[in-house]
Write a structure and sequence with these properties.
- The chain has 406 residues and is an alpha/beta fold.
- The protein folds into two domains: 129 residues, Alpha-Beta Complex (Aspartate Aminotransferase, domain 1); 257 residues, Aspartate Aminotransferase, domain 2 (3-Layer(aba) Sandwich), CATH 3.40.640.10.
- The chain is 39% helix and 14% strand.
- The strands form three sheets. Strands 2-8-7-6-5-3-4 form a seven-stranded mixed β-sheet, sandwiched between helices.
- It is globular and about 70 Å long.
- The chain binds 4'-deoxy-4'-aminopyridoxal-5'-phosphate.
């Protein structure tokens, strides 16, 4: 992995950059950038402009190959993959599609680990349908407490949606075991996985795990912004209503097309597809496939352990997930200093980490603080990044005046 950094052109343009914010967005390798350019420079036609031209063939086959490579990665079927702009979009569309699955008094279960994107869409439909939202208990590892699920899941629980790898603490929910237990209690309950933070770090097997739907974003897997994936199990996808209308394959007078049961992707994808992004997403999954998921996990974990050893020596630091199994994240605060002031100072020194509630509205219930600092690693990080970060944190402790804005 050591050589990987040179695959990321940003480090040639931003020579001073120390990027430790991959849980927000990962940087892009040159193969992804090249694939996006290739579409724009060489192919650039609409995938609806069907013809025998080599351009059409290239665009069309790339779309299919992108669905295939993603399906293989998560062990789903090709026809179960839809392209949507992001995880947030995917979860919103899914929630709206499932709205009529709910009746007054039904239950949706979530967790306090969730990103707002996996809370608000469900809370919104629950409010509309007068359903109840409940939060599943977490154990001391901060993952869903399977031993207590009996008390939370019942026949009225229609949907459980949870994060696979948390973007605030990096903890990994054992999705297979959790889903098994939920389905034992209520086989009709739908289990939805927010895999936005997990695909890079943890293998996924939606078929074996019996998941019903999953969402992920291109920009978190070394791919482009503006594209995400909604995977829905075929049997569920076939039952979902048509929510979106317009261009694509659904062409014809409304009275002729309204009742057709079209393939899932044609229900979910409307209008011109984000084609350059699809080219980029395929390259991102090809890039990921160059490494065993375990290899990336181990590399990032070695960096994490090295960082923890160094951080522990800093005066008045609170590390919230030091003892937890975490994919690639360290979450902490320095007593007396606001997280945003620290991030500001580090930013001025070209060191990017994240501050705030980390898009987790219930962060306080996890760590007892409303905001924190988050370091998150990518495959391009190295030990020098960490040494630089730690030396700047030490500078703050030694000379707090560096935090002053002037
Ligand atoms: N869920 C998780 C766990 C995330 O980490 C993120 C992105 N930080 C999202 C959802 C939302 O992703 P997007 O902004 O790409 O829609």
């Amino acid at each position: 992995m050591d050589d990987l950094r040179k695959e990321f052109p940003i480090f040639k343009k931003q020579k001073q950059l120390i990027y430790l914010d991959s849980a927000a967005t990962s940087l892009k390798p040159k193969t992804v950038i090249q694939a996006i350019n290739d579409y724009n420079q060489k192919y650039s036609i609409n995938s609806h402009s069907e013809s025998s031209s080599p351009l059409f063939k290239k665009v069309w086959t790339t779309i299919q190959e992108t669905r295939e490579i993603i399906a293989q990665k998560i062990k789903g079927k090709v026809e179960e993959i839809s392209f949507l702009p992001s995880t947030t979009h995917a979860l919103n569309i899914l929630a709206l599609s499932l709205k009529n699955h709910l009746q007054k008094g039904d239950r949706i279960c979530l967790t306090y680990l969730e990103h707002s994107s996996n809370l608000h869409p469900w809370q919104a439909i629950a409010k509309e349908k007068k359903a109840i939202v409940d939060f599943l208990p977490l154990n001391k590892e901060f993952t869903i407490d399977i031993s207590k699920l009996d008390k939370y899941i019942d026949k009225k629980t229609k949907i459980v949606s949870f994060v696979h790898v948390s973007n605030s603490l990096g903890v990994i929910n054992p999705a297979a075991e959790i889903t098994k237990k939920i389905k034992e209690i209520n086989p009709e309950c739908l289990v939805i996985l927010d895999a936005c933070q997990s695909v890079i770090h943890v293998p996924i097997n939606v078929a074996e795990w019996n998941i019903d739907a999953l969402a992920l974003s291109g920009h978190k897997v070394y791919g482009p912004t503006g594209i995400g994936v909604l995977w829905i199990k075929k049997e569920l996808g076939e039952k979902l209503p048509h929510l979106l209308w317009g261009g694509g394959k659904k062409i014809g007078p409304m009275e002729e097309i309204a009742d057709q049961n079209l393939p899932l992707s044609q229900k979910m994808e409307v209008g011109t597809l984000p084609l350059a992004e699809i080219f980029g997403l395929k390259a991102a999954f090809e890039f990921l496939n160059n490494f065993a998921t375990k290899e990336i996990y181990k590399y990032e974990n070695d960096l994490r352990n090295y960082t923890l050893q160094k951080l522990k020596k800093i005066k008045n630091i609170t590390i919230y997930n030091q003892k937890l199994v975490s994919a690639n994240i360290i979450t902490f605060n320095l007593a007396s200093y606001h997280a945003h002031d620290i991030v500001d100072y580090l930013g001025k020194n070209n060191i990017l980490i994240r501050a705030g509630n980390l898009c987790c509205p219930y962060l306080n219930k996890l760590i007892g603080a409303n905001s924190a600092l988050r370091i998150s690693f990518g495959a391009y990080n190295n030990y020098n990044d960490i040494n630089e970060l730690v030396s700047h944190l030490q500078k703050i402790i030694q000379s707090p005046q560096v935090l002053l804005p002037f």
